[in-house]
Amino acid sequence: MFDAIAPRYDLVNRVMTFGLDRSWRRAAVEALGQPAGSTVVDVACGTGDFCRELSSAGYSAVGVDFSWGMLTSARTEAPLVQADALQLPFVNGSAAGVTCGFALRNVTDIAALLGQLARILERGGRLALLEVARPEGTLLRTGHSLYFNRIVPLLGGAISDKAAYRYLPESAAYLPEPAALKRLLEEAGFGRVRRRLFARGAAQLLTATRK
After folding, report:
1. Is position 157 within any domain?
2. Where residue 82 sits, what CATH number does that domain have?
3. What predicted TM-score, i.e. pTM, was given to this entire model?
4. 44 φ, ψ to 5°?
5. 151: CB partners within 8 A, 6+ apart
6. How would you classify the pairing of strands 80-82 and 60-65?
7. Residue 81 — left, alpha, or beta (φ > 0 → left; ψ -120 to 50 → alpha)?
8. What φ, ψ does residue 18 adopt, rounded to 5°?
């Protein structure tokens, strides 16, 4: 599915988020707070949006994705690796930072993924996760649900692949609630877990430090 939507993936993202996804990635990169030149692994890198932001911020970025189609459509100078996020091909403690954008709900075992991210991070290394969220409050949540579950599939279908953009909103059902996700991060070996909301709660940034 991701191979099929790769050629127009960036375009659909910009349209769906009104271009706000770029500012969310910049905020995630800024939240890492690691020294210039540090190695940062972007897991589920897709077409390289995060890698480009990381490189612009002075980090040594490495992208990893399971989809060969995404990697061949990537627009980044960072080295790219095709690999399963649940079996990352990096030695323990080899990264100062890890980023991951909108991918938690696409793995079969979120706890195992977080364990892998903790494993490749050095002590004191930083994690920044971007994900969808649901706004608080009945009115906002209703409007968000209408847009995310009805309008997004129509936009995605018109620009790219209809079936894929039906799946992507539906996959949010696999994302744990904030308290459960915080607990999973702590159990994986992270501390100082923080959550920041964007777009009135439509997206979230989770940051944490490897203990």
Report:
1. no
2. 3.40.50.150
3. 0.90
4. 60, 55
5. none
6. parallel
7. beta
8. 55, 30
Helix (H, G, I), strand (E, B) or coil at 53: helix
Among 189, 207, 211, 60, residue whose Cα is nearest residue 129:
207
Q: Does 109 map to a domain?
A: yes
**Shortest CA distance to 76 belongs to which of 59, 94, 88, 96?**
59
Residues 176 and 133: their CA atoms lie apart, in Å, by 10
pLDDT tens digits, one per residue of 41-51: 999 999 999 99
Is 169 part of a structural domain of the chain?
A: no
* Distance (Å, whole) CA 136 – CA 105: 20
pLDDT digits (tens, 9 = 90+) for 143-179: 777 777 778 777 777 888 778 778 777 888 889 999 9
- For residues 147 and 134, the answer to whether their CB atoms sit within 8 Å is no
Between β-strands 121-132 and 203-210, what pairing exists: parallel, antiparallel or unpaired? antiparallel
How far apart CA 95 and CA 123 sit, in angstroms, is 10
Helix axes 152-159, 162-170, angle to 10 degrees: 150
What is the span of the domain harbouring residue 28? Answer: 2-134+175-210
Q: What is the DSSP string of 76-104?
A: -SS-EEE--GGG--S-TT-EEEEEEES-G
